[in-house]
Write a structure and sequence with these properties.
The chain has four helices and no strands. It has 84 residues and is mostly helical.
């Protein structure tokens, strides 16, 4: 999709130089920059996963689970299922 951006001249010049030095296009630089801004950071993803795990553990305890609850990563769950 086409759009028009009004960029400060010094930023545009630096971006064009960077793109040329890295053998990419201005379009790719803008696209990558926007993706980085709108995508959640690794820290945000980890915090969200931790919150979901804490809620799940609390829910299990509310249901009367008395054993130790240890959050597992997806690969760990998959590995345990293969051992069965």
């Amino acid at each position: 999709m086409k759009t028009t951006l009004d960029l400060p001249e010094d930023v545009l010049v630096q971006a064009k130089i960077y793109a040329a030095q890295h053998r990419t296009t201005l379009k790719e630089l803008v696209t990558e920059g926007l993706r980085r801004v709108i995508s959640p950071s690794a820290g945000e993803i980890e915090a969200a996963q931790r919150t979901r795990s804490e809620r799940l553990i609390a829910a299990l305890k509310d249901l009367g689970h008395t054993g130790t609850v240890v959050p597992l990563k997806r690969d760990e769950i998959h590995d345990r299922q293969e051992l069965r």
